[in-house]
Amino acid sequence: MPHNLKLKELICMIRNCKTAAEERNVVSKECAQIRTAFKNEVLEYRTRNVAKILYLYMLGYPAHFGQLEVLKLISSSQFLDKRLGYLGAMLLLDEQSDLQLLLTNCLKSDLNSRFHYVTCTALCTLGNICSTDMARDLAVEVENLLKSHNRTIVKKAALCACRLVRKSPELVENFLFLVEDLLDERYHGLMLTGVTLLIEMCLVSKEALQFSYKLLGKIIRILKMLLTCGYSPENEIGGITDPFLQVKLIQLLGVLGHVNPQASSELNSVLTQVSSHTQSFKNAGNAVLYETVRAIFKVKADDELKIFAINILGRFLSGNDKNIRYIALNSLIRCVHVDIKAVQRHRDTIIECLKDLDVSIRRRALELLFVLINRDNIGFSFFLYWSMCFFWEDLITLYSSLTHDILQFLHVCESEFKPYICTQLVRACLKDAPSGRWYVDTVLQCLKLAGSYFEPELVCEVIRSFGSLSELHSYISRNLFLLLEDDISAQPVVQISVWCIGEFGEVLPTPSVKDEPHVTPTEETIIDLLESILQSSTTSSLSREYLLTALAKLSARFPATTRRIRAIMEPFTSHIDVELQQRSLEYVSLFEQHALRDAILERMPLQCAEESRLGKEEASLTYKKKVSEATSDLLALFGSDTGRPAFSTVHNEETSATPGRQPTANSVGGLLSLFDEPTALSAADAGINVYRHEGIEIRVQSLSSSTEESTFLARISNAGPFAAESFVMQIAVPKSMNLKLYPASSNYIPANTLETVTQKFQIFNASKQTLRLRIKVSYVLNGKRICDIQDVNELS
């Protein structure tokens, strides 16, 4: 292989490789020759070799040995070498690189270059890989470039300043007063970068928020000018005057209106004007309308305006663009809490989305339908239907049954949807069913359509609910008996049916009553069916365990079949499956102890509503105990010898939190946090920053304070490129104080978002000492577990 192989030739060689091993062989040989060239200082082919390294890096091969050569290209006097060097720096270097100091010196030199192409390239690199130290070292140069007369340099400098402010918020004061000059520019490109920089500063600084309130009138005036101005060929896209600038201006208004309710009244009129004057025929108009909808839900808008925003999302659903429809469904899921009736008016359109060819649209439409389910629309009585036909025809569609539509989709949907549909539908029916008979019919319909897709947890929930409906035991057992006669291949159906027959199968031989299936099997018929299922090759081990237990219970219900049931069980006393062997041995031994057998095999006690409520309270107390034990180690950091929690209990009355549970579409906390801002706080309640690491930031604000009791709210935001999962924050106080820690609104923090997670806590300071905290946070970021401890010595 020649040493001066060109980049195009290398690309062709790699593409012509027929196997992965052949490709790795070509790459390893080329990397070895490139290393040799770097070692021998072959300057003639340095640029070509660096270009090949970047190509190999984009293919996923290691290219760290080219970092120093990249810096040598940046130090070159030739622009082509600098351009390739800076491209390599953006790909191969990061904030943790050991070459940060050398790169900072190169950037400082090129930012002061007289050649504006070199300056712009350096600004692009700084805006992509800037670290906190680099931001402080080069802030003066970027500030000077913002005062340049070259528009291109000013745009690049403003975007670079966004990165600097994000990395080092104390630099806001360097750029704050330069933003106003950018807003006064007539060139829309400079205005766009100025608004972007102002948004970034508002998210990290209360001083920037106070400054932005003074510019609110100018911002609204600029937006109205864009709405009312005539045709502008250089700025118009799709019939919309500069939609990029409009989107950024509306986003800024949402930030300002969210933290300052007094300003929301001023924003209602301009947001209404934007919504009314923007056409949604093309993507440019859709983008402006979507950002307007987000801003409406951020600010304290009127109810009529919020309903108007929901109707805009409903219009998006009627479009042909799949991306717009997906965005509309996703947004409607998160704003159902505003006005569920307004969203239900678009139910027919949402149901039509279930027929879309795009699987992601069908999934989102399904999630939205489950969010819409409540007591008013889950079931529908025919008496109410005929009443509405005569009096309120418009309400028929609004209050018709969503369950029927979901069951129709369950009949034709792909297999990947069926487990989710069964789980969500059964749980929704258990919560909001109009009657027990209706609930049973719905579950039976699910078992007929998708019985094989019931998850084990759902099987247990259905069994528990069927057992509690004592007045419907005969109806349930007869229907399940018919299901077993038709098909025994669906193991979840077998398990539910066998359990119910074993528990209350004595009602089957009795005559059926009105509205029950006309099936009256004899005792021998029931045993024959269970025996055939037990001997079937398709029956799983778990189902056999259910069958053995059911047969044992039926031996107490049907005394005449005891000998036969014992004969069926005895072969399993030597079964290869240990669990089946143990169960059969235990049950066979019970046949010799009649009095004891009848007591052991009697019906399971019913779980009434009071017992269920007590069970939930017991689970809540267990969770509190686990949280208390988990925080004892953290509290010991303050010198507690006994590890006694300082009243660190989790308040669980308003939020029923489960450890490790992800937020769902039905989570009210997740809905309320749709358009929340992470760190954009008003001047009065901005709080203090107590933690910042890789984009994760925690700010604590005081809600109420007295000499002995203080209430605080922690706001956790994520400005980084990766979502934070399994987020847990624990707080410890000195032994002289007591702490009451509430659950967080979510344990999932999306990346690069304006959403925020909140967690409330109270401190009881009877000794009136200075408040001190020790905060321990743990979360998973980009697949890596991060655990940090931070001391907070002042909360005022």
TrEMBL record:
Protein keywords: Cytoplasmic vesicle, Golgi apparatus, Membrane, Protein transport, Transport
Protein's UniProt name: AP-1 complex subunit gamma
Entries under SMART domains matching the protein: Alpha_adaptinC2
Primary location class: membrane
Family annotation (Gene3D superfamilies): 2.60.40.1230, Leucine-rich Repeat Variant
InterPro entries noted in UniProt: Adaptor_Complx_Large_Subunit (IPR050840), AP1_complex_gsu (IPR017107), ARM-like (IPR011989), ARM-type_fold (IPR016024), Clathrin/coatomer_adapt-like_N (IPR002553), Clathrin_a/b/g-adaptin_app_Ig (IPR008152), Clathrin_app_Ig-like_sf (IPR013041), GAE_dom (IPR008153)
Organism: Zophobas morio
Domain GAE, first and last residues per copy: 683-796
Subcellular location: Cytoplasmic vesicle membrane; Endomembrane system; Golgi apparatus
